[in-house]
Design a protein that fits this description.
Blueprint (H helix, E strand, L loop, with lengths): L1 E3 L5 E3 L1 E7 L5 H4 E8 L7 E10 L2 H9 L2 H4 L3 E2 L3 E8 L10 E5 L2 H7 L7 E5 L3 E3 L6 H4 L3 H14 L7 E5 L4 H13 L2 E6 L4 H5 L5 E4 L5 H7 L6 E6 L6 H5 L5 E9 L10 H15 L10 E4 L7 H12 L7 E6 L3 H9 L6 E5 L6
Parallel strand pairs: 11-12, 11-14, 12-13, 14-15, 15-16, 17-18
Antiparallel strand pairs: 1-2, 3-4, 3-6, 5-7, 5-9, 5-18, 7-8, 8-10
Helix pairs in contact: 6-7, 6-12
The chain binds NADP nicotinamide-adenine-dinucleotide phosphate (NAP).
Length: about 350
């Protein structure tokens, strides 16, 4: 059954959606609901016909770590999307307009919305127009990784032209955006990555490359520190690398900042990973007079989405300075294989799902 809205666009009452019904790995936690309701809208929200969605580690991490009573399941999976406005709901936006955006965790819990559905209900503050030169499968993954990198470098790191930045994890989705933003700002950028990614990363014009698979980062950087120590270290891996922080005085400016995407344990039962995180917590809180590290450490706060930040990120795309990197594109009924890919932690850029089979 379908209804027709005032703008002549046909909107069905039910849709296909991947719904998280319980805590666990994607194969246990997800149900492909062929009859999920198309959401109704509140004031200030629009209905998006999703063309493509993309994955972030936060999706499978929360699925596996957080119990139902905290996440208020069931709700639709994932956060990043691009699509067209199906119902502008009196907001002044134009039906049919192409947009991209994302649904933060808090909003997902409140509204049960996610991006792995044919339709999603989102506030207008969470979307921006899609550049005409981006295909839907390219724009799908800009949201969370892009905003994370943007918030880290521009809002918190306050990176300036000529400053020296180290990106730990240049080939992560977050890292690829961070490098491009930093180069657009005019910073010098050194990255870590595995040797096989060096040519790819040098393609962005990075100034230095450290192969993390050869020797620990802190050993390599202590042996050959940069001529000008880093003003900002941005950890886009989130692997709670304790010695990389505790040795950072050797390669980071006294007033520099070690900024990390929030590291979480690989699982509550993974003892080494939990202990490592506890050790990191101890080190970042250890006072200087007790042998603490004389450098600032900060973890990125939970993202607050604002239109201003989305527009700031979009400007880099619109001006041709930021091109999303796509690792792979999966079809909508192949979502479990897409989870396998992102969970391998070997993806180079975004793992994308084509929700609308006609999306490029
Ligand atoms: N995506 C987001 O929006 C977002 C937001 C907030 C926080 N975070 C956090 O940020 C981290 C990265 O997320 P992501 O989506 O960008 O990850 P991702 O794209 O899935 O990361 C995969 C990449 O990480 C590289 N890698 C793995 N271990 C590495 C290491 N020790 N050093 C350097 N590179 C390494 C892999 O390269 P090789 O195969 O060559 O090793 C691969 O290219 C995660 O901890 C995530 O929870 C992400």
């Amino acid at each position: 059954m379908s209804t027709t809205n005032l703008n002549g666009l046909t909107i069905p009452q039910t849709q296909k959606a991947w719904v998280i019904v319980k805590m666990g790995k994607p194969r246990e936690a997800l149900v492909f609901d062929q009859n999920a309701p198309v959401p109704s809208l509140s004031e200030g929200e629009v209905l998006i016909k999703v063309q493509a969605a993309a994955f972030n580690p936060v999706g499978y991490k929360l699925m596996g770590l957080m119990p139902n009573f905290l996440m208020k399941r069931p709700h639709v999976a994932e956060h990043d999307f691009t699509g067209v406005i199906a119902d502008a709901n009196g907001t002044g936006l134009t039906p049919g307009e192409a947009v991209w955006g994302f649904i933060p965790v808090g909003l997902k819990i409140k509204t049960k919305q996610g991006s792995l559905a044919q339709y999603a209900r989102v506030p207008t503050s969470h979307i921006v127009p899609r550049s005409p030169f981006l295909k839907p499968t390219e724009a799908a993954g800009l949201g969370l990784a892009g905003m994370t990198a943007y918030e880290a470098l521009v809002y918190i790191g306050k990176l300036e032209p000529g400053q020296n930045l180290f990106v730990n994890g240049g080939s992560t989705a977050v890292g690829t955006v961070a490098i491009q933003i930093a180069k657009a700002i005019g910073a010098k950028v050194t990255v870590s990555g595995s040797g096989k990614r060096e040519d790819f990363l040098r393609g962005f014009g990075v100034d230095g490359f450290v192969d993390y698979t050869k020797e620990p980062l802190h050993v390599q950087l202590e042996r050959a520190p940069p001529p000008v120590k880093f003003h900002l270290i941005f950890d886009a891996v989130g692997d709670a690398n304790v010695p990389f922080y505790t040795h950072s005085a050797a390669y980071m400016q006294p007033n520099g900042l070690y900024l990390t995407v929030a590291p979480v344990p690989a699982g509550w039962t993974n003892l080494p990973s939990v202990l490592n995180l506890l050790r990191l917590t101890f080190e970042v809180n250890r006072p200087l007079w007790l042998g603490g590290t004389p450098r600032r450490w900060q973890k990125l706060p939970v993202m607050t989405v604002t239109k201003e930040k989305l527009q700031g990120l979009a400007r880099f795309v619109d001006e041709g300075q930021l091109k999303p990197v796509v690792d792979s594109v999966f079809e909508f009924d192949d979502v479990l294989a897409a989870y396998d890919r992102i969970m391998s932690q070997r993806a180079l850029g975004k793992v994308v799902v084509r929700v609308d089979p006609e999306a490029e």
